[in-house]
Structure formats: C-alpha cells, structure tokens
Amino acid sequence: MSTQALMPREPVPALNVALTTGGRFVLGATPGEHFDLVVFYRGLHCPICAKYLIELERLVPEFAARGVQVLAVSSDDAERAQQMADKVSAKNLQFAYGLSLKSARQWGLFISAGRGKTSIGIEEPALFSEPGVFIVRPDGTLYYGAVQTMPFARPQFQDLLGAIDFAIGKNYPARGEYSGAV
C-alpha cells in the first residue's frame, strides 16, 4: 500500500489522541486562532526526535503568540510518550500518544519496521511512523505539510515561524492545491 499525500486546501484526516497530561486532543474541536501545528515524531527511541522536540518546546510560546496551537504526537504508548515529554522538559508543548498506524498512513506518513535497539539503547517498536509536520487552518484544511522517509533533514521551526508571520501578514493562500492534468 502506498502513502497518499494530503492536498492543500482540502480537509485533513481526523485526529483524536490521548494527551500525556490527561484528556484528549481532538483536531478542530478548539483550534488555534490562526493554525494548529501538528508534529508527528517517531517515538522515544529516536534521539533526533528528542533534539527536534527540545527546539519545539523552546519555541511554543512564539507559536502561541501568533495564534498557533502546537501538538507533538507519536504511536508510542502512554509511558513512552511521558518519557519523551520528560526528556524534553515539556512545559509548553502538548504530547499526544497512541496514534494508530492506520491514522498515520491517512496523514501520508511513511511507516517503518523496527530494527532493534537504537544508538541510545531504546528498542524500536515493531512498526512506527516516520516524521511529518503539518500546519492546519482552523477550518480543518491543510495549509502546509512535510513528510520524511527518515528522521533526518526536517523543517526547522524557526523557519516555520517566519512562514507563519508571512502567511498571516499577507493572507497568503495554501499552495500546491492544483490536482488537474499536467
């Protein structure tokens, strides 16, 4: 089964996941003023994810000041998700867990098979999703999306802040929406 790309300006798949702080995050139920930033990460086993999420934790107040709600989500269980939240000293960043691989695939994420312990000595799950970063409008449509087949070379959050400033300031439309013949 191949991974399908989401289309800008079209509705994104449903997302209803448990939070490490209790309760659930339901995409669209209480959206950010301008956007929701949904960051799918590989899981506790990924040292690159931890470094990436530390940077996101640092910048969550900057996103919030721009009317952007931020969520980090993986297919990890509650215990592993809490360990990752602790590892990045999360105070601002919401961590969600229990993403089904079916949902990950609906979001266009690539799925990998575990290969044992990683460089930090943590066992990879049997199957897990690779990273993806999505900016979703309050109406539930895709504004921006990036997916990776590996943990490397992800969009930088500082760059996304600049893009959000531009998008809000210029009322810039989502691009990549054309699906006709070429």
Structure, briefly:
This protein is an alpha+beta fold and 182 residues long. It is 27% helix and 22% strand.
User: How many beta-strand segments?
Assistant: 9
What is Rg? 16 Å
Per CATH, which architecture?
Answer: 3-Layer(aba) Sandwich
Record the strand order, biggest sheet: 2-1-5-4-3-8-9
Task: Say what the CATH topology is.
Answer: Glutaredoxin
The topology string of helices and strands comes to EEEHEHEHEEEEH
Global geometry: globular
The tally of structural domains comes to: 1
Given as residue ranges, the uncertain stretches (5+ residues, pLDDT < 50) are none
Name the helicity range. 25-40%
- Helical segment tally? 4
- Return the structural class: alpha+beta
Task: Assign the CATH superfamily.
Answer: Glutaredoxin
Instruction: Please tell me the overall pLDDT.
Output: 96
What percent of residues are in strands? Answer: 15-25%
Biggest sheet architecture: 7 strands, mixed
* CA-CA gap between termini: 25 Å
**According to CATH, what is the class?**
Alpha Beta
Topology:
Elements: E1 16-19, E2 24-26, E3 35-40, H1 47-65, E4 68-73, H2 78-87, E5 94-97, H3 101-106, E6 111-113, E7 127-129, E8 132-136, E9 142-147, H4 157-170
Parallel strand pairs: 3-4, 4-5
Antiparallel strand pairs: 1-2, 1-5, 3-8, 6-7, 8-9
